[in-house]
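Our working data are protein records whose layout never changes between entries. Instead of coordinates, the fold is spelled out as a row of discrete tokens. Here is such a record, shown just as it appears in the course material:
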Amino acid sequence: MNKHLFLLPMLAALAASSAWSQSAPAHDHGHGQIKVAQAPGSVADGEVRKVDKANGKVTIKHGEIKALNMPPMTMVYPVTDAAMLDKVKAGDKVRFTATSEGGKLTVTGIQPAN
């Protein structure tokens, strides 16, 4: 028996691990750190506190958003499309989708809650 045959399973595992890490989605934010990409969006419920159409921002008080590792808070979010702010006003209960791209949180969708 060849004395190097015992290395084959270890080499195969190493190659599979290397291939997975190279194909996993990641972002290099210029700091030499590789981070796994966030999910496309996280749906949450909240209450609109302020709508700033001129600057394309909305202030939302919301509960915990586990997918984004966010505790309950009130926060000002930029929106991807200022036209979506025509659908809501201060005091509205809403359901919204937020994403984190490079550490920047953005509302990608918002609508009055049912």
User: Anything to note?
Assistant: Residues 7-23 form the longest helix (17 residues). The radius of gyration is 22 Å. The chain has a mean pLDDT of 76. The chain has one domain: 1-114.
